[in-house]
């Protein structure tokens, strides 16, 4: 792990004075301007590093907490096939969390530190995972809308200026598209079923539609960090641009499925060449982000418990690694 006053550049170590930093900063700016990737050993402004750590950690936490609402249905999935699909999907989310914690570690933090920040509420995760999964249709709707929104958010991150994050996102996005398809396929099966099943799907869409739109974050006018993140090539589009893209992508999918999106103001605007949609309840968004969503306390308590229950695994793994290292040293000496 390295900290701010020692900088690595091309393998050499230089002191972090302003005078020495000027050419390094120029190098960084040139990398960004040429749309090349910044790598862990490159010099980077402290604010860039901090922004990335915050964003990647928040993303990793979302993947890990996001396992809970769906994990809730693994034992109750109606067939072996549905169980297998859901299990694979939830397992993928664990993998996404791991790639992302590893990407954050290249910036000089460690995973234990980030986990601590999550379970003590010092870092956030996506507001969407604070809503409950009340019916099995929610599994389909989460795949379709929540993973669908995640794809819109994440595909541009494959071109993020920070190399390790961009590369992690390539694989994550491939898996997210499987998640979206499995959700849509489940909903198609339910829509071909009984009236009760169709009602179940519609009721679930009614609950998840607005929270899905909130996944893109506050409106641009209320998102002070967007401009800097875009200048650094971390973010490629604004929150509202991505939200619009999601709405335009989802409307025809809803029609093909035969469900109604719960927004009377949702309609095609030929002048804009995009759909207009109703006002999002930003007060609800702020409440959920601030910790008063329907499941915030439950999600964090569950994560904390899982962390405590895993203490013996971490201890055993550390003891094993130490033993292996000691053995390797002994063999070298011999
Ligand atoms: Fe994921
Ligand atoms: Fe996913």
* End-to-end C-alpha gap: 31 Å
Helix count, DSSP H or I runs of 4 or more residues: 13
Please summarize the sheet with the most strands: 2 strands, antiparallel
How would you classify the helix and strand content by structural class?
A: mainly alpha
- Overall mean pLDDT stands at 93
Number of strands: 4
Strands of the largest sheet, in order across it? 1-2
Helix content: 55-70%
- The Cα radius of gyration reads 22 Å
Beta-strand share of residues: under 5%
Shape: globular
Low-confidence runs: 1-15
Small molecules bound: fe (ii) ion
How do the SSEs run, as a string of H and E?
EEHHHHHHHHHHEEHHH
Pfam families: PaaA_PaaC
GO molecular function, one term: phenylacetyl-CoA 1,2-epoxidase activity
InterPro entries: Aromatic_CoA_ox/epox, Ferritin-like, Ferritin-like_SF, PaaA, PaaA_PaaC
Protein name: 1,2-phenylacetyl-CoA epoxidase subunit A
Notes on the protein architecture:
Its EC number is 1.14.13.149. It contains 13 helices and four strands. The chain has helices spanning 18-33, 46-65, 67-71, 80-105, 111-119, 137-154, 163-191, 195-214, 226-231, 239-257, 282-292, 296-309, 311-333, and strands at 6-9, 12-15, 267-269, 274-276. The strands form two sheets. Strands 1-2 form a two-stranded antiparallel sheet. It has a two-stranded antiparallel ribbon with strand order 3-4. The chain is globular, with a radius of gyration of 22 Å. The chain starts with 5 loop residues before the first strand and ends with a helix. The structure holds fe (ii) ion (2 copies).
């Amino acid at each position: 792990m390295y900290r701010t006053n020692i900088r690595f550049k091309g393998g050499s170590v230089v002191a972090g004075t302003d005078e020495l930093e000027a050419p390094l900063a120029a190098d960084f700016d040139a990398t960004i301007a040429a749309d090349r990737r910044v790598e862990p050993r490159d010099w980077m402004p402290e604010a860039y590093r901090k922004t990335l750590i915050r964003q990647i950690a928040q993303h990793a936490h979302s993947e890990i907490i996001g396992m809970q609402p769906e994990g809730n249905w693994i034992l109750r999935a109606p067939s072996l096939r549905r169980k297998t699909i859901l299990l694979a999907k939830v397992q993928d989310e664990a993998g996404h969390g791991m790639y992302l914690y590893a990407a954050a570690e290249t910036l000089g933090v460690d995973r234990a530190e980030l986990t601590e920040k999550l379970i003590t509420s010092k870092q956030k995760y996506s507001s969407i995972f604070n809503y409950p999964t009340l019916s099995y249709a929610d599994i389909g709707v989460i795949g379709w809308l929540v993973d669908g929104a995640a794809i819109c958010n994440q595909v541009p991150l494959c071109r993020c200026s920070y190399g390790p994050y961009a590369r992690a996102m390539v694989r994550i996005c491939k898996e997210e598209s499987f998640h979206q398809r499995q959700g849509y396929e489940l909903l198609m099966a339910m829509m071909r079923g009984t009236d009760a099943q169709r009602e179940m799907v519609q009721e679930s869409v009614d609950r998840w539609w607005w929270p899905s739109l909130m996944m893109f974050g506050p409106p641009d006018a209320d998102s002070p960090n967007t401009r800097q993140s875009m200048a650094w090539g971390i973010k490629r589009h604004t929150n509202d641009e991505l939200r619009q893209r999601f709405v335009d992508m989802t409307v025809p999918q809803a029609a093909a499925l035969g469900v109604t999106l719960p927004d009377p103001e949702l309609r095609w605007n030929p002048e804009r060449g995009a759909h207009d949609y109703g006002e999002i309840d930003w007060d609800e968004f702020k409440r959920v982000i601030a910790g008063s969503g329907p499941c915030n306390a439950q999600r964090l308590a569950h994560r904390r418990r899982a962390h405590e229950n895993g203490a013996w695994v971490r201890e055993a793994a550390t003891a094993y690694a130490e033993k292996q290292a000691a053995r390797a040293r002994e063999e070298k000496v011999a």
